[in-house]
Structure of ScoMcrA-like SRA domain-containing protein:
Amino acid sequence: MLVDRGESGYRNVFLPDGRILYMGEGKRGNQEPLGGNLRLLLAHQEGTPFRVFLREGPGVWRVLGCYRVEGWRYALLEEEGRYVYWFTLAPCRCEGGP
């Protein structure tokens, strides 16, 4: 999974404890449980870990490590008048690596 600090227009929030609040996929209208959002919902249900990469510049990505979807919520983003997914990603260990 790729995350950034706002360059893509998504509002990821990096928490001091290492968790990430990851805004779901879809920049217009209410987000739906399709594509990447569905994959993250299934990853939460199944407890599947995945690697996360942070964008550090154009074409430059750094591995942050493995994460799991700790939880999620579907909430109104008032300033845009639409509903979005917020996934809480928590660091974990992946099999065969950090």
